Model the fold of this input.
Amino acid sequence: MAKEITTIGVMTSGGDSPGMNAAIRAVARACAYYNVKCIGFYRGYQGMIEGDYCVMNARSVRNIISRGGTILKSARSDEFRTIEGRQKAAEHLKEVGVDAMILIGGDGTFRGGKLFYEEHGIPVIGVPGTIDNDIAGTNYTIGYDTALNTVIDAIDKIRDTASSHDRLFFIEVMGRDAGFIALNSGVGAGAEEILIPEEDLGLERLLESLKRSKRSGKSSSIVVVSEGDKTGKNVYELADYVTKNLPDYEVKVTVLGHMQRGGTPSCFDRTLASRLCVKAVELLLDGEKNVMVGLINNKVTATSFEVGLKDDHSINKELLRISDILST
Ligand code: F6P
Done:
């Protein structure tokens, strides 16, 4: 019979994302509801290795649902990538009496969690928190919606100045090797072109499209570039390339960077975080382990890490087609 769960640990790991605090709150409150002790570890796996933690009750998480970032802080731990690091973390959990862990983070966090479970048998459940939306076991990750809205807001502002000066802007957005942020914000902001890692449309096509824009009487243009795009040129090199080939354009570059990770979480992200984390606690209490929770067709669903981490987060090609039609 599975060991009874009386203490659940929680941590946030990898790049922070808006809604992580709502997730921590939901774990702490669900634990309080079910009469389970809750321990928060600081700086993700690093805090587990160092035994850096705090006991959390329902009141420890007051007024954090609306705050960006993560009160537990986040880190990418190199030490946890080693067998010795994971051993230290397991020893600390045993010392503190933690029976199971909820890991809030992205694919790197989940890969670490899977290994940790396989080596030490401590039940873990992953909750997808990353702005990149690149986890197969969920339609949406916590933070993605807020990041999209931040990007849209920034692009709208850039559009104002682009249009006042008749300029072409290349705007680089995050996403690591996934194009979700670029594609959706590009369509939402009415970009003329969107460059994503999943679909290399080639530089010739970019030039052709910009020439067409000019001919059709457009005065300003926005090209959204995902940081992982496959043109082989970074955003500055792309700008130089276009300047050289289309001297009529006055080209500018904006890299949005880490502003995309901050800010007040949207209602969608807060609700998503709340739903996923209550479920994560309930699953652990029901004896579930080694899975991630995600939202699939608006239903909170548990998926094995194996499947949840599959590299099949395919892009919505329909959006590329829509973008083509609407940038005419
Ligand atoms: O995974 C989230 C993310 O913001 C990616 O979009 C980006 O590539 C990466 O993290 C940046 O990481 P760091 O904050 O460590 O520079």
Remarks:
- Residues 15, 106, 130-132, 174-176, 227, 261 surround 6-O-phosphono-beta-D-fructofuranose (CB under 6 Å).
